[in-house]
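Lecture 7 notes: from sequence to structure.
We start with the chain below.
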Amino acid sequence: MATQKELPVRPSEGGQLPAYKTPAPFHDIKPGGVAFQQLQNIYGNIPKDQPFQDNVQIKDEMSFFEYMRSSASSATAPFPEQDLDHPLSSYYISSSHNTYLSGNQLYGSASTDAYTNVLRSGCRCLEIDVWDGEESGTSASSSDDEASISTGRPRSDSKRSRWSRMKAKAANIRGSSPRPAHRQTTSPHPAEPGVDSNRPLASATHPNHDAEPVVLHGFTLTQSVSFRAVCQAIRDSAFVTSDLPIIVSLEVHTNLDQQQKMVDIMNDSWKDHLVVFTSLEERNLEALPSPSSLKNKILIKVKGIHNSQTGESSAPLEHVTSRATQSSSGEAITAATASSQKKGPKILLALSDLGIYTRAFTFRHWDQPEASMANHVFSFSEGKMFEMHSDPTSGPALFKHNKKFLTRVFPRGTRIRSSNVDPTFHWRMGAQMVALNWQKLDKGMMLNEGMFAESQGWILKPEGYRANDQVDPATGDEIASNKGLLDLRIQLLSAQDLRLPQDRDPSHRARIKPYVQIQLHVDTYGPPGQGKTNRRQSRDDSDAYGDEDSEDKKYQRRSKTARGDSPDFAGEVLSWSGVADAADELSFVRLKIKDDRALAQDDLIAWACIRLDRLQPGLRLIRLLDAKRLPSTAFLLVRISKKISSGVPSMSKSPPLSD
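Predicted structure tokens for the same chain:
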């Protein structure tokens, strides 16, 4: 006979379990409300002589409500303990794209608060785009005057004036005053069509040695923030919620002098958090270390360069020492003089050397020397990942690569409003870092929440996706044994305390018409190299809250519309039968409650996303997040039935309910 469970008791701040007492309510079920009355009726039908769900003994109505108010009744199972001793490549890592931005990609503000917020929300991979800092003073640079003299033509300020006006308009849109323009020296190379020459450039002819690097989205109207302030913000929040390592992905657009300043600032700000090789033997990596061995460490992802002392393979960048190196004539090349050469080095060795376990290289082909280095990182756009997935050669090669080595995926550049990729596709390809725009609540961010909820931002991949996993001898497939047929049934009973949609006044509360929309996310692309090749990628920002494209709707269900902020859904059932390719660690149930509006887009009221293996059957309460991704007191009372089995998929699936 199984041992009966007591109601859970959360540890005190000191980590010790106190003597048992009735825990504080996890779900605030209000007496007299619809949910309360439904639970009273359910209690009346519970056999009192046998354990209830979760093997909890219900003695009376009070103990029943204590259980339902506790975290034990949650539809989301507690996050399981996981092994943190596998190599870094064996984990999914909660990741951010253009972390510094608080708005869209064209004129949003850069802010240190963005780093603080994502780190305290569980993000463990950040991005910093670094550019040359402002020049001191407001006068035109000497290079501008020299250009005027050499050409015999007066210098025109028309482009700069237009750019300043555009920046002022962008500042007005942001609701702030325009910052001084980033005055940069003239590029020694012609500007690309449509690109203003006064925007930050990777190498300037006359770098300002007093300025410090800044962080912004290059060639846009985004507002900047200092690189030093960003590093300090990361230092202050990096290990508040987790002691597991963070990865800082650097996009370097600065000249060599500014790169040295970056090195100095990171060493000053992060000090003991940086990883340092102490011997040549440590440099000769054969495998990546584990997260548990890198607690409280900051890993720098930065472009790698050839280093003859380490025996590493050559990269497309030239060798540069931290302050000086030797030219072909034997003369020393300092950072300042090298930056003025037309074809000078692009990255400083001192900066590249910070990429200990996360050294970035441009992907060219699977046989390039860097592809066998244990510490290399390849970055792919979302479009490249789709292209490679469908290729019979590249798809399996990419999946195999991602078992032993790190990969980062970033959104395509046309996602101007900061919409997100569907991370589940890339996780199924084994990519560890799927960079998302955390300022945008849409399908991508909801799924990210479902994957990493209650974790420390590192999730061990399923079997078959990790380094050293073996091929299934029966099928010859590394991941087939993890998939099955899913039968899922969710009965909707009621909700409580739904918050008003954003920008709605209190008088709208009586007019709320909520309905529940549930999306099941399973693999619809097929195995790498054997999958569909003509899948349409979702449009940008078609729905502020991440509605699915038409090909996902066969897995979408919708309830009837109810009334009020604590609606009764009358036991309506939403179900899925015989859904194939359901891998419970990489499938998700995403739920949204919306306000049904006849003549406008339906407003998001609340939502939740639960990974399938953590979805608990039985009488459950789903805690809901609001439209700002913040916890709320709202919940949804449901009954859940879930079964995953192997076999041939059923052809009789429940039809989706129309919107």
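Points to note: The radius of gyration is 28 Å. The chain has a mean pLDDT of 78.
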